[in-house]
Amino acid sequence: MQPPHAAPSRTSPLTRRSVLRGAAVAGAAAALPAVLPRGVASSAAFAAPPAPTYRTKHVIVVAFAGGVRARECIGKPSNVPNLMRIAEKGAVLPNVKAANLGHYGAALAIFTGCPDAQGIRENARGENPTIFEYLRKDAGLPAHEVWLSTTAGAQTVNFAYGTHADYGAKYGANLISTDGLFNAEFRDLVGSFGQVSVPSDAEAARVEKLAKSLDPKWTAGGKGDGLSNDPAANLRIQRYILEELRGDTSDITGPGAGDAKSIRVARNLFRLFRPKLIACVLQNADVAHGSFNSYEEVIRRNDRELGLLWDAVQSDAQLRDTTSIFVLPEFGRDASLNQRNGLDHGDGSEDLGKIFCVAAGPDFKQGKTLSAGVDAFDVCPTIAQLFGAKAPVSRGKAVKALFA
Fold this sequence. Notes:
This protein is α/β, with parallel strands linked by helices and 404 residues long. Helices cover 37% and strands 11% of the residues.
């Protein structure tokens, strides 16, 4: 897809000087072919058009994973009023194809653009690069600009990077797993040192100055090519963890608590770091196997947290007009209830294989339902395009119909 060019009024203010300069250039260009040998065309005739500049500078991806049917989301707006608010500012893609590759494989495909099956207990990293690696390496983003917040579990930490020889760990995302950050043992350990104290801004500034003067990599003038953050980013991360432990995120309990924490963490990280890309991987909807009612409760709870995330973006003057968001499940669920009054995922029905994607942002169509058929793994190259990067290993394509 060739993305739309930015409007001239946004990039080139029309002034008397620019008009005169444009006329001079046009005149020189018109005269140029006259001095070229016959049959030799001007190289300007073959020059590639300038790369478009997208208004999107930040992207949020919410993998509404755990197996969520469109029927309980965009098909039942009362369950997801906040998701529908986002849809009003963007577009709904109701014909997104998803393959039943297992929860891990299908969710991983959103980030790699490669639909590869993974076993239910598979705990090996994927072989393909993730969108985090593409942006770290090919778009040159430092580690503190790329974040991943996951619900919990051994598999979810593997979303941060793959094992591809040209990419890998040194281009991965900063990862926070809510199970690791907020488990009771860690809170008790911190609590044993007494009341958690967040340093003042002045104290933090002094510590940052000292850290810069002592860190060998910093004094050598390089930050390295790996995942490691620079000292200033590390200090902000430490401060963030202390704030979270002192806050109310760790006290979230009940059905879907892991998902709610993951979204809350993503919201707070986005507020503090304003990263270029932050992804949030949910999974508590898989409670549907045993209880349809609990499954819907998880959806509604996640929607509430999603609304708070969206409101935090909209209330920030800088982020409001520069942030795009994608929300989609990894696949759906069966068409009919099982014997436990729950929903499995294996019948091959349309409810399982056709999901939705809600996307909103400054470069996307607004208030539209787009009938175009796309794949869930098209999200990866779409994000790459927004940042002017390639996704060479991805088997997906940027979603052309989404752009305004």
